Amino acid sequence: MTETASGSVARGGKRPRKGLKMKRIFTNPGVHPYDEIQWERRDVVMTNWRDGSVNFEQRGVEFPEFWSVNAANIVTTKYFRGAVGTPQREWSLKQLIDRVVGVYTRTGIEHGYFASDEDAEIFDHELKHALAHQVFAFNSPVWFNVGTQSPQQVSACFILSVDDQMESILEWYKEEGVIFKGGSGSGVNLSRIRSSKELLSSGGTASGPVSFMRGADASAGTIKSGGATRRAAKMVVLDVDHPDIEEFIETKAREEDKVRALRDAGFDMDLGGKDIVSVQYQNANNSVRVSDEFMRAVEKGGDFGLRARLTGEVIEKVDARDLFRKMGKAAWECADPGLQYDDTINDWHTTPETGRITASNPCSEYVHLDNSSCNLASINLLKFLKDDNSFNVADFVKLTELIITAMDISISFADFPTEKIGETTRAYRQLGIGYANLGALLMATGHAYDSDGGRAVAGAITSLMTGVSYRRSAELAGVVGPYDGYARNAEPHKRVMRKHAAANDDLRTIGSMDAKIHAEASRQWSECLKLGEKHGYRNAQASLLAPTGTIGLMMDCDTTGIEPDLALVKFKKLVGGGSMQIVNQTIPRALKQLGYQQEQIEAIVEYIAEHSHVVDAPGLRREHYEVFDCAMGERAIAPMGHVRMMAATQPFLSGAISKTVNLPESATIDDIEQVYMEGWRLGLKALAVYRDNCKVGQPLSAGNGSKKEEPQAEPEVKVVEVNRPTRRRMPNQRPSMTTRFTVGGAKGYMTASSYPDDGLGEVFLKMSKQGSTLAGVMDAFSVAISIGLQYGVPLETYMSKFVNMRFEPAGMTDDPDIRMATSVMDYIFRRLALDHLPYEERAALGIFSAAERAAQQRGEDPAALQEPVDREALAQSAPIETQPKREQPVAELTLESHQRFTADAPLCMTCGTKMRPAGSCYVCEGCGSTSGCS
């Protein structure tokens, strides 16, 4: 797309200026990119998840007609600037893109990036086209800040440093607070701080880093992130040879013991509950920096020395396998700590003469110098898949050049939270280009995520992206100079470039798609090495794989970052409100690629829509099942499948990968140890795991949070005599409550009767005319449920079976407390739970009234809202017709209804929707908020 020009003729006969000659990718001369788009006006109205009131409304916003309702809603609510209702408020995507791109273009001109004004215009138009068409997106801080009166912060990732001095520790607290307040996250390595086993100069014993973590955690929990109610995003790292490493490893696991004890004692330990604040160390991700020396000691079964911080002498020896076992056990219990592989990270370090890499950002994808930052951008890979299912290599190369140029320009105008971070970032100019929709691309082209073919495609694309990025960085160095720290780091930087190129040479292609991509990657790396020798490089770092949470939704991506598809069925928001269930659009395309005829495709898609998986789908060959494997569900990708995919792309990334390897609840400590060991052997830089339901202090947990133990062997079977249950019949006169409801337009009545001394015992349902089939079925169902209740079947048991059951009629209800229902049964049993179960039992099932959620948001005890029901008064009254309250919003049902894998995901504190995983973080599909990564 571009070439370096040092002698082109400028306008008006002026002397030629050095700069980039830009070539068009998507745009045409004389035509503004906006003029080639069909625009439409929409209304964005967001309701409060607690009481149904409108909390955001902006009508008449303008977006391209091909943008989804969800993408437009998120951009309108999160990225448009100006007070709502004022003339200053942005109302069109054109205004947003113009605000951002205008600053990039003007800065590029001012700093001599372009050979001519015409080249600057091409840059401007191409960037606007790519953003408007969702081909790529900058990270959120760019959209928040660039072109506004706010500081021009463009970075989402920061790394701090702490020395063994009280002044430095207090400065760490302050810097973290400033970063959290601005809505970003940071990471830090505490290994320079003396351990609790070492002496101070005064003769006393040092406190140790874990004690200072307590203060930082309290600060983060108070400030939160961006001044909002969600937790701050931070990473705390400790080297494996630190004398306090065992205490660090077990810190969060011990706190989980506290959570269990307090919960069993009756305290409110749900996320957002008033008593959860007593739990410490919960505002950070913890990672252990392991060395090759330590991992080899684990393999061989030897001792490992823990070293004093000031002298470096070994003050204690531990069994390496025992210490590694404690890491695995703690991660099994509470998902922390993750591992960062220190020698691998620093072996790929471009600027070691400046300092070692000691830490990462909160999601572990940015690893570089202390007191530095990185701005990110991600490419939507599915935009490069042609109609014939080939990958558009040429356009991908040109777009990557464009993005790297824009990202480097941004450092020239960017503001930073601290002076030290600003100095380091301007001197080393770290960038973080990445991608999203890899999982969707692989499925659409008939590649299984956990397959040699899928990994070959992913590796080739990643190699091409980074090769082009560094080649463009070398070209930029020829125009505006290399980064300030390049001279002292030239040799190690060029060594790392050769390592990337060598890894590309070793990449084994499988099919024609990855072979074509790899061939171009080889050409790019060859040119990169040649230009790097001549000009040096403009950027110390170029690529990584971020979680792409909010921006993935902005680009209408089916999958985020390096992740596979989460589920085969999802919900789509509709214009005017409501939603519909759809099968992911990549599935028909994949079936066509695999050779199925249209009639077969329609039958398979219909089966998936009903069952949410492909097992036994009519006509689908078993050898093709793996193409449709997802992160969770009937055919979940095995944990090592995720690790292998990370290993396929890691050699081609400057940084690391934001990804959590999910394991089933049945996984053992040995399984987690294997994942951690294979991560090291396969050359990963960082790795985190999460075992389903391992944490107690989470909402909607499917587990009961009982005593933590590794699964044990089956006990000896003993035969016991069980008493036969007896039926407890209802008295002739009993209290009852009648509820009128509407589900998906179908009206009905439910009468629930209770025993006078408490307890539901009878349910009657009416939904059609007497004598109709539906009326008969509902009568029979009512009798079956009522008899079960009278024989002692707990209501909670029925809840677990019928909540989230899916069939028509389904959709909107007239109940302000349960706004959406996946079926009549789903609605009925949610309503029964709200009316007849105490708060503690409903909380375990994840069902709350609007008032209870509002109380949680205010930090109050929801249990205090409960009032005992006067059954005697109720028995003497006429049946009561109630208008129940609102409960789950549609986006929560998006995942929970057909996949029960998000039980441990937090609720979005902005809109109340259940969040979904995005790399090492969580993202809300309802409003775009994230748990820490932009």
UniProtKB/TrEMBL annotation:
<dbReference type="Pfam" id="PF02867">
    <property type="entry name" value="Ribonuc_red_lgC"/>
</dbReference>
<keyword id="KW-0170">Cobalt</keyword>
<feature type="domain" description="TSCPD">
    <location>
        <begin position="731"/>
        <end position="834"/>
    </location>
</feature>
<keyword id="KW-0237">DNA synthesis</keyword>
<keyword id="KW-0547">Nucleotide-binding</keyword>
<keyword id="KW-1015">Disulfide bond</keyword>
<dbReference type="InterPro" id="IPR013344">
    <property type="entry name" value="RNR_NrdJ/NrdZ"/>
</dbReference>
<feature type="domain" description="Ribonucleotide reductase large subunit C-terminal">
    <location>
        <begin position="155"/>
        <end position="690"/>
    </location>
</feature>
<feature type="domain" description="Ribonucleotide reductase class II vitamin B12-dependent N-terminal">
    <location>
        <begin position="44"/>
        <end position="134"/>
    </location>
</feature>
<dbReference type="Pfam" id="PF08471">
    <property type="entry name" value="Ribonuc_red_2_N"/>
</dbReference>
<dbReference type="GO" id="GO:0031419">
    <property type="term" value="F:cobalamin binding"/>
</dbReference>
<dbReference type="InterPro" id="IPR050862">
    <property type="entry name" value="RdRp_reductase_class-2"/>
</dbReference>
<dbReference type="InterPro" id="IPR000788">
    <property type="entry name" value="RNR_lg_C"/>
</dbReference>
<comment type="similarity">
    <text>Belongs to the ribonucleoside diphosphate reductase class-2 family.</text>
</comment>
<dbReference type="GO" id="GO:0000166">
    <property type="term" value="F:nucleotide binding"/>
</dbReference>
<comment type="function">
    <text>Catalyzes the reduction of ribonucleotides to deoxyribonucleotides. May function to provide a pool of deoxyribonucleotide precursors for DNA repair during oxygen limitation and/or for immediate growth after restoration of oxygen.</text>
</comment>
<dbReference type="GO" id="GO:0050897">
    <property type="term" value="F:cobalt ion binding"/>
</dbReference>
<dbReference type="GO" id="GO:0004748">
    <property type="term" value="F:ribonucleoside-diphosphate reductase activity, thioredoxin disulfide as acceptor"/>
</dbReference>
<keyword id="KW-0846">Cobalamin</keyword>
<dbReference type="InterPro" id="IPR013678">
    <property type="entry name" value="RNR_2_N"/>
</dbReference>
<protein>
    <recommendedName>
        <fullName>Vitamin B12-dependent ribonucleotide reductase</fullName>
        <ecNumber>1.17.4.1</ecNumber>
    </recommendedName>
</protein>
<dbReference type="Pfam" id="PF12637">
    <property type="entry name" value="TSCPD"/>
</dbReference>
<dbReference type="InterPro" id="IPR024434">
    <property type="entry name" value="TSCPD_dom"/>
</dbReference>
<keyword id="KW-0560">Oxidoreductase</keyword>
<dbReference type="GO" id="GO:0071897">
    <property type="term" value="P:DNA biosynthetic process"/>
</dbReference>
